[in-house]
Specification:
binds zinc ion, 2 domains, 286 residues, two-stranded antiparallel sheet
């Protein structure tokens, strides 16, 4: 009985992720592009094909399945549909399931929907930040602000008991401390090595990880971001050298490589999979 309910919640979370992922796709194509997502008449018109502008029916908008059945092409004009749509939807579904796994709604002390909803909002916002940074190499301030607000809520509110809680000094310092290296990189380079938005994002990530797992998880996540970022950066550079003559991959040493995807990936490994290089170090501070 208990296992059945857990499974339903697990699948439900993945489906919720699919739907939100589909919404984030639509938002990413309309956000800051002058196309209004919400018009005065409510939802800003129906979704249309980007090329033929044909209104899309409900059948064309089923997450992932529509893409598979339409074989990645518009039903009306045959235009290729970006693989971003099904990819983001799948990632959002996996994130939804992971959040449910990390924050069980059914606990021994009763039904606890709030931690799930809180972390679901956090991870969906982070997914949007990654999508946006990959596309525009910038992090929208509205997203950084939302994440900072969520982090501050987590700092002072126990999501299980809904009681006010005062975090320890290391937890309070975690955000600014982890954002500092990124902030300094931006300061020294005038924002060319590292965008200002990255330190704003790391401020929230530092707090979120410090409260939920510990300061060491935050440090681990930041190290992972730099290491994975360095490996991917070098790989892109090598590829751009190899394919330079045929103009494949425009990455050079001066190319701005978005860093938010690496920060979020590091945080993902630390939060969901408890990757922690410094647990012994943090035990000293505890
Ligand atoms: Zn079309």
């Amino acid at each position: 009985m208990e296992i059945g309910a857990q499974t339903i919640l697990f699948v439900g979370s993945a489906l919720l992720g699919l739907i939100v992922g589909s919404f984030l796709n639509a938002l990413s194509f309309r956000f800051n592009t002058g196309q209004k997502f919400f018009s005065k008449r409510g939802m800003g018109g129906r979704s249309r094909c980007m090329r033929c502008a044909h209104e899309l029916s409900a059948l064309d908008l089923v997450p992932v399945l529509s893409y598979v059945f339409l074989r990645g092409k518009c039903r009306y004009c045959g235009a290729r549909i970006s693989w971003q749509y099904p990819l983001v939807e799948l990632v959002a579904a996996v994130l939804g399931a992971l959040v449910c796994w990390a924050n069980p709604v059914l606990t021994s002390s009763g039904v606890q929907p709030l931690p799930f909803l809180f972390w679901f909002s956090v991870w969906m916002t982070l997914l949007f930040v990654v999508m946006y940074d990959l596309k525009h190499t910038i992090i929208p301030w509205s997203c950084s602000g939302l994440l900072a607000a969520l982090a501050v809520v987590l700092l002072f509110l126990n999501l299980q008991t809904l009681h006010f809680s005062v975090p320890g000094p290391w937890t309070l310092l975690a955000g600014p401390l982890l954002a500092l290296p990124l902030f300094l990189l931006s300061l020294v380079s005038g924002g060319t090595w590292m965008g200002w938005g990255d330190s704003a994002l790391e401020l929230s990530l530092g707090w979120l990880l410090a409260v939920s797992i510990g300061l060491s998880a935050g440090v681990t996540a930041l190290c992972l971001a730099f290491w994975i970022g360095a490996v991917v950066g070098v790989m892109l550079l090598l590829l751009s050298h190899i394919f330079f003559r045929i103009g494949f991959f425009g990455y050079t040493i001066k190319s701005e490589i978005p860093f938010a995807p690496f920060l979020v990936l590091g945080a993902l490994l630390a939060y969901f999979f408890h990757v922690d290089f410094f647990s012994t170090l943090s035990a000293l501070f505890a």
